[in-house]
Amino acid sequence: MRARLAVAALTFALLSACGAEEPVVKTPKPAPAPSSIEISSPTPTESESPLDFPSVSTGIDKVLVVVVENKSYSQMKARAPRIWALARKYGYATNFRAIVHPSLPNYIVMASGSTRGVRSNGYPSGIRLKGPSVFGNTIKGGGTAKIWADSMGPTTCRLKDRGKYVPRHVPWNYYVDERDLCQRFVVDGGEFAGDVASGDLATVGMLIPDNCHNAHDCSIPTADNWIADRVEVAMSGPDYRTGRLLIIVTADEDDHNEGNRILTAVIHASQKSNVVTKPLTLYSLHRLLADIGNTEPMNKGRNAPDMAKAFGLPLA
User: Fold this and answer.
1) What pTM value is reported for the model?
2) pLDDT of residue 53
């Protein structure tokens, strides 16, 4: 024991004499699978993020959208402290609105810039949309697209319920002309952390929580922790840490009590407590996905308020 202490003292003296600085502690790599993520760090405040962004070396050419179910702006602000802290640290919109009720038409808006006439939460077997989605258009233009669906299981592009997984929250399921792409690129959420670690997040991507983790069947704090954990994982990866990845946390609709106003957080190094008051909608989000995917916005997304301009996002 004395010998060990003597060595430590000698090492310290040598370092001090040479003017050496303390070694830099590298950010740990993310856990290998999101289903086993355990993050016990304290809730971040508006002045600190769970994983601060070290630098920006390039423009944004990837986007990840995470969707909460049926919760208003005020509900999320009051009961989702970790998401709200990220929103305040980076950026958020105070006047961002979903389009209609119920859920599915809003997901179709994100993918198509239009509800495409969808008015209900039907299954893909009964709602068969012809033509492209923003996902297919992105791939056609040379980019990549992927949806990680929580609790979907080993079957890709699952078109029926499985436990807390429901197909209506995965918009790519409904585009019959792109069913082969859906089979390849709509995968179980268990693949998410691995894709983050390897820098293989998609040009246009969505992370879809199941019906507990999106606050549909479980509490808002439950969803807050699940989503914030995975946002932190995404922030730890090379796509985010080089400035390429933009993370959006939004909702499909409100609880029918706030005129469809929803909290939309915009997480990127370019955002420094940026509060955007300009009116924006899910049409604007579709336009942003198309812009990042290097393809043309569709339908009402073409003339929607420009979300990238409103937030001053440095697109590649």
Assistant:
1) 0.84
2) 54
Backbone angles phi, psi at 169, to 5 degrees: -95, 5
Q: How far is CA 304 from the centre of its chain?
A: 21
pLDDT digits (tens, 9 = 90+) for 272-311: 999 999 999 999 999 999 999 999 999 999 999 999 999 9
Segment 148-206, tens digit of pLDDT: 999 999 999 999 999 999 999 999 999 999 999 999 999 999 999 999 999 999 999 99
CATH of domain 60-311: 3.40.720.10
C-alpha 287 chain-centroid distance: 16
What average pLDDT does this structure show over 113-129?
98
CB 151 within 8 A of CB 210: yes
Cα 159 versus chain centre, distance: 22
Do residues 214 and 65 make contact, with C-beta atoms less than 8 angstroms apart?
Answer: no
Which among 21, 12, 295, 300 has a CA at the least distance from the CA of 139?
295
CB–CB of 86/232 below 8 Å? no
As beta bridge partners, residue 245 has 62
**What tokens does 91 get?**
């950026």
